[in-house]
Structure formats: structure tokens, C-alpha cells
Amino acid sequence: MEKAEFTPGTQRPGEVDLRPVRDEAATPEPLPPPRMAVVLAAGRSERLSEVTGGGSKALVRVGGLALVERAIRTALAAGVEGVVVVCGYHAGPVAAVATRAAPGRVKVVVAEDWEKGNGASLVAAEPALVDEPSFLLLTADHLFAEGALAQLAAGGAPAVLVDPAPDPAVVDEATKVTIGSRGEVVALGKQVVSPVVDCGAFLLGPDAFGAARASLAAGRGTLSEAVEELARRRRVVAVPLRTGIWWQDVDTPADLSRARGLLRGSLRRSSDGPVSALLNRRVSIPISWALAPLRPNPDLVSVLAFAVGIVAAALLGMGHGLAGGLLVQACSVLDGVDGEVARLALRAGPRGTLLDGVLDRVSDAAIIGGLGLWAAGTAAPGVVIPLTVAATAGALLSMSSKDRIAALGLAPPSERRLGWLLGGRDGRLFLVFVLAVAGSPVAALAVTAATSLLATGLRVAFARAYPP
Questions:
Q1: What pairing do the DSSP bridges indicate for beta strands 197-204 and 135-139?
Q2: Structure pTM?
Q3: Could you give the count of Cα atoms lying within 13 Å of 307 in the half-sphere of its Cβ?
Q4: Is 346 left (phi over 0), alpha (psi -120 to 50) or beta?
Q5: Which of the two ends of the chain, N or C, has the fewest CB atoms closer than 10 A to its terminal CB?
Q6: Average pLDDT over residues 296-306
């Protein structure tokens, strides 16, 4: 969903000014980036009972992961070293899933007073965070897109992640946030009148525990009331969600359905070439979604795609254009599955990307070599050899130039537009598939060489023409 530009508002007519008079000279110490995160997973959520069957909402699965596990991995992806999970309702099953989510990096505590509200769950985490000057706080029933917590986790001051332009479908049920003229949080609550909503993620310091205890003593047990109490004592800033980044609170079956749709839709990439966007993703995403509950290792999927590419190369070398071409396209589809499975499981990382890239380059060279062997039986060596060399060089240079531009921080061209040349991997393998099925190995080599070398040249030209 599109996000509007964030501009802190002012108090609305008729609203009560809840801002305390602060001593501006006594500025609190800034908060450093957090080393630890807290995930609140103690609640019951009766509105999801038809899904949970009376169990904990934190164990509901979305994209193959329980909500509590997804929250833990989201926090770890934001850069923290460990996570404290606060359990309450059905603590045993929730604790078992939480500890398996990241062995050695998760500590479970039980909030005995969890029924008083998630403010009480926050207080229960205090003994596990001794000497921690800051911590990231998430609630298990909130899902976030990749990178949603980056700015929040950067540190600086106590903060609330807010959505300045939320989906109208979530506004009525969401916790609204009133923002002061300097970007500070003034009030939080479902009854607050404001177009800005709380996303369920916070950066807090140790003073948040005292604020939560004071709020509980006053009979106010929710997390939003605890944060509001903290905002009375010191400045709490509102950090706006970046444009194009989604989030979803899961309170009802409709919310759960919406969360699954957002997560599934996020598997598409803005840099997808036309073949990936219009064809491959339509096949790979359903496969990845079906595989997600099985928790396959993304590296194994990369190896499977590589194996399919090698078999395709062997078939092409023997002149079996139909079978070889179909497997080339299958290799292209599977090349999307490994990344999708990794993102669904929040397991994407540089090591997997490196392995995938190396295997892709080797299978590309093998497929072109297979075309060359096939073409050698149909055309003169003086034609086949130069075309095979050019196609191999073009395929490898096309992808290596793209990776090098990114590694050097140069301004990349629009890969979506460049993709229409079909010089990217998705387009190149699709052309090989079509021309192999048509029984034209020489044409496949020529078109592969032309499109990939042209794409490489344009990437280099654009990168040199525009400053980083």
C-alpha cells in the first residue's frame, strides 16, 4: 500500500493536551542501537479462536512460520543479537516454538500476570534485560516487510514505529497515535483521534519498565498505555514507516487472511524482469508457498535448480530440444523458488546469495555449452564456435556486471526497463527454451549472445554516465 509523506501534526481542536512540561535542559541520554529485542507472546486472542481452536495466537502459522517465530526472526534480521520472548497463555507450547526459532539466541520468560495486559508482560521482561541500555520491542501478532524496522533500530531516542497513511481496513481497530509539532508522541490509544497508527514496534530503554509499572498501578494495563506514560516522562519520537513498506496486525481471521496476502505478494521483486514478472513468479510463488510449511533449506533448492540446469544442458548437447528446453525453463522457475523460500523463512543472507550466484553461472555456461554441442552437428564450426564463446561471455558478463555495479555502489540502470531486452537471466533462459523447442540451437546461441552483450554494455554505460 502506498504511504504518504510523513509530516508531524499538531493537536486537534477539542483534544486534551497530554504533553507534560519538561525540563528541556535535562536532556536524557540518547539510546544506542539495541543488542536485544523483546517479543510479547503472552496473550490469548479470543477473536481468533476459530483459527487457534483455543490455543495461543502466537502459534498461528503464516508462510510456514508461527507468528512468534516470525517475530523472533524479524527482530534478528533487524540486527539484534538475542531475543527475550515473554509467554503467558499456553506458555509451554509457545516457549518450545520460540526456543527452536533461533537456538542459543532466545530466552523465554513467563509473565505470571499476563492477563492484566501486555504492559504486565513488558514488566516481566525486565530481569532478562539487566544492563541493557536499549531494546527493540515487538508484539508477536504483528508482521512486517523486509527492512521495516531498520530506521527504528538505528537508535537515538525512545521511539514508536507509526504508519502515517494506513490502509483504511486497519484504522478502526488500530491503536492511533497523536503526534506533536516536533515529532513527539503525545497520546496512544484506540480511542485517540488521529490519522496515524501504531505499527506495534518500539525502541525503548530501561525507564520503560518504570512507566509500565506506574501505568499498571493506575489500572491501565495495555502496552500503549505504558508507552503513553513513558511519553509523559520523556520525549518519545514517532518513526514513520517508509513508503512502500507494509505491516499487518493479526487480531481477526480477516487480518490473518490479509497478512498472508501481503506476505505472499511481497515475494515479487521490483527488479524482476518481464519473464519473471509475467510468467515465472506465477509458477514459483505457489510452489514456494506450498513448500514453506516443510521448511526446506534454501541452499538445497539452489542445488536442485542447478541439477535441473545441468540435466537440461546434457539433453541439449544430445539434440533433445524439447526436453532440454522445458528443463531450461524449469531451471529458471526454480531459480526464483530458492529466494522466495528464504524470504518466507526470513533466512535470506549473503552466504546463500553467493552459493546461488555461483551455481547459476555454472549452469548458464553448461546450458550454452550444450547448445554449442547441438549446433555443431547442424552448422559449420566457424559459425558455432564464435557464437558459443560470445554467448557464454555475454551470459556471464551480464550478471557479473549487475552484481559489480551493486557492490561498488554505482547508480544502477532500471533493471525493469533493461529486462525487456531479455538479456537478464530470466529472459535469456526463456529465449533458449523457445528456440530449443523450435529446434534452432544456432539461433539460440546468436540471440543469447546479442541480448546479453547488449544488456552488459548498457549497464556499464548507464553506470558510468550517472554519479553514485
A1: antiparallel
A2: 0.85
A3: 6
A4: left
A5: C
A6: 95
pLDDT in tens, 158-192: 999 999 988 887 787 889 999 998 889 999 888 88
Query: Amino acid identity, residue 138?
Result: L
Residue type at 16? V
| d(C-alpha 394, C-alpha 337), whole Å | 25
The DSSP secondary structure of 426-450, one letter per residue, reads HHHHHHHHHHHHTT-HHHHHHHHHH
CA distance 187 to 223: 12
Name the DSSP class of 278. I
The amino acid at 316: L
Q: Rounded distance, CA 220 to CA 213, Å?
A: 9
Which residues make beta-bridge pairs with 31? 156
DSSP 21-37: P--TTSPPPPBPPPSEE
Distance from the first to the final alpha carbon of the chain: 29
pLDDT in tens, 225-260: 999 999 999 999 999 998 889 999 999 999 999 999
What value, to the nearest 5°, has the Cα angle with vertex 241 and ends 239 and 247? 130
Specify the residue for cell string 555461483. 358
Identify the CA nearest to 333 among candidates 263, 400, 433. Answer: 433
